[in-house]
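Archive record:
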Amino acid sequence: MIANDEDLQRTRSRIAYFEDLLAQLRVGASAELFPLMASGYRAEIEKMQREVLDYLTRHVSQPLPAA
């Protein structure tokens, strides 16, 4: 969960890193292995993107949701 703007920046950087990995894999991995290799990165990117959107659509005055 993203708790502050510093966490937000770290998560955005991590998303970009994983996207760059996927870009490299799509040309470097075999066609047979690529879907298996990409699926984990995709799932993690989607999870982080949801966290980013949850953070950005919560007003600064709203408390963090309970874990």
Residues 5-56 form one domain. Helices lie at 5-28, 34-56.
